[in-house]
Amino acid sequence: MTKPLALVLYEKLLPGSQLVNKLQDLNYRVYTIADAGALVDYAQQKKPLLVLVDLTSSVTNVSVAIAKLRQTPDTKHLPVIAFAGEQETELQETARKAGATLVVNETAITTHLPQFLEQALRVE
Q1: 3 state DSSP class of 5
Q2: DSSP state of 22
Q3: What is the value of pTM for the model shown?
């Protein structure tokens, strides 16, 4: 059986690399990208089960990429877990408005990843 694929967008080495390792420990295949502008293209090509995004970016507004993901027929169904620092409340709120399935604190993402995955993948 093929392992599920998680598409992970991050710029900062930590917690990005920790998240990738934790996903692999949970038997996910992981494809990483650093360019939020390419998120929709990669999601269409790779067909992941879910997308995880670090909202902190020095180059792009990641919430715009989340909104584009939601507006694209091929990717609008994908669960998106967005994460940012505890103090980044504006980034977190913008991600919620853009359509992120779940927005969490970056310090909690690796610790509670199994629970976050379960919540994001829950079929309503």
Answers
A1: strand
A2: H
A3: 0.95
